[in-house]
Automatic annotation (TrEMBL):
Transmembrane segments: none annotated. Its cofactor is Zn(2+). SUPFAM superfamilies: Zn-dependent exopeptidases. Gene3D superfamilies: Zn peptidases (3.40.630.10). This is Succinylglutamate desuccinylase/aspartoacylase family protein. It comes from Undibacterium nitidum.
Length: 319
C-alpha cells in the first residue's frame, strides 16, 4: 500500500477562447469544509450546463488536504498553510500535497483559497501587501488584487500577515525562517500570481458555504469568465470597506499568562484596555486603538498569543 493512501483531485473547465487562469481551492485545512461544499455546487452547475465558461480556464480543488479532510481535522501531519513549497524529501503527507499543489498554482494567474475559522464572526478576506520591492514579499499587482478582493462580497479586509510574522521571528533570532509563514496565497504571489484567502465564517456557520459560493460566482464574473455580465461597483465597495493591517504579535511567555476576557478576533481595543495578565501579575495593555486578532487561549509558551491590527485607509485612498 502507498505511504499515503489518498489521491489528489482537481476539476478543470477550459474555454476555446483565451482568458484568465483561475484556481479555486478548499479544505487546505481539513475541518474547514465550507469551500468544499461551495466548490462542489459550482462544479455541478458547470457539469449540468447551467454555467458555461466564456473564456479562459478555471480549476477547482474541492479538497486540497485529503488526509486532514478524511480525519475531519485541521492538519494531516502538519499545517499545509505553513512553509508551503515543493520538496524532494517527502516525509509528511503535506509534503506530498505541496509537490502536487504548488505546480498547479504556478499554472494559474489567480488563486481564491476558501477557509473558515473556529469562533463566531463575520467573513473577511486576507490580502497581500501593497506594491513593494522588499525581500520578504515583493509584489507589483496590489491594485489588481484589491479589485479582486472587493468583488467577493465581504466588507472586512486584512493585510500585513507575512511582514508581521517575519518581524515576530526576528525578535526570536529567527529572521531567516520567515518562509515558515508562506501558505497558499504567499506561494501564489511568489510565482507571479495574485491571490486571496477568504475566511467565510466559522466552521459551523450554516451560512459559510453560501458566502463561499457567492464569492466563487463573483470571482467568475469579475474576470469575465461567464456568458452573462454582473459587474461589481468597486468604488462603492471601496467606500464601504473596513481595511485592517496586522502590525504586532504578542507572545505567551508563561503557562499562567491569561486573557482578561474571552476575546474573539476583531474585537475592538481602546488604548489602555487590559488584554491580559502575565504570570507575574503585570497587565498586558493595548498601546493604541485597534483590534485583537487570532487570540489563542491554548497557545504554547514562546509562541504567538495574539496579533494586533489597526485600521488603515489603504482601500479608500486608492479610490
Amino acid at each position: 500500500m502507498s505511504q499515503f493512501p489518498y489521491q489528489f483531485q482537481s476539476y478543470q473547465f477550459a474555454s476555446p477562447q483565451a482568458g484568465p487562469r483561475l484556481l479555486i481551492s478548499g479544505a487546505v485545512h481539513g475541518d474547514e469544509t465550507c469551500g468544499t461544499q461551495a466548490i462542489r455546487r459550482i462544479i455541478q452547475e458547470f457539469d449540468s450546463g447551467q454555467l458555461l465558461l466564456k473564456r479562459g480556464l478555471v480549476t477547482f480543488v474541492p479538497v486540497a488536504n485529503a488526509k486532514a479532510y478524511a480525519q475531519q481535522s485541521r492538519f494531516g501531519d502538519r499545517n499545509l498553510n505553513r512553509c508551503l513549497q515543493p520538496t524532494t524529501e517527502v516525509q509528511e503527507f503535506e509534503d506530498a500535497v505541496a509537490n502536487w499543489l504548488c505546480p498547479l498554482m504556478a499554472q494559474h494567474e489567480i488563486l481564491l483559497d476558501l477557509h473558515s475559522f473556529r469562533d463566531a464572526g463575520q467573513a473577511f478576506a486576507m490580502m497581500g501587501p501593497e506594491d513593494n520591492q522588499g525581500t520578504i514579499e515583493p509584489f507589483t499587482q496590489a491594485r489588481e488584487e484589491e479589485d479582486f478582493a472587493l468583488c467577493l462580497g465581504v466588507q472586512r479586509y486584512v493585510d500585513g500577515w507575512l511582514g508581521t510574522y517575519s518581524r515576530w521571528l526576528s525578535t526570536h533570532g529567527k529572521s531567516d525562517q520567515w518562509k515558515f509563514g508562506v501558505g497558499t496565497t504567499e506561494y501564489m504571489r511568489s510565482v507571479g500570481g495574485r491571490a486571496l484567502t477568504l475566511e467565510c465564517g466559522s466552521h459551523l456557520d450554516p451560512h459559510a458555504p453560501e458566502v463561499a459560493y457567492r464569492a466563487i460566482r463573483n470571482a467568475l464574473h469579475h474576470y469575465d469568465l461567464l456568458d452573462f455580465a454582473q459587474a461589481t461597483d468597486l468604488a462603492a465597495a471601496r467606500a464601504q470597506a473596513e481595511m485592517l493591517s496586522l502590525y504586532h504579535v504578542v507572545d505567551r511567555l508563561h503557562e499562567n499568562d491569561e486573557f482578561s476576557r474571552d476575546w474573539r478576533s476583531f474585537d475592538a481595543l481602546k488604548a489602555g484596555d487590559q488584554i491580559g495578565t502575565r504570570a507575574d501579575g503585570s497587565a498586558v495593555l493595548a498601546e493604541i486603538d485597534g483590534y485583537i486578532v487570532f487570540p489563542d487561549t491554548h497557545a504554547q509558551v514562546g509562541t504567538e498569543w495574539f496579533y494586533l491590527a489597526r485600521r488603515t485607509e489603504r482601500l479608500q485612498r486608492k479610490a
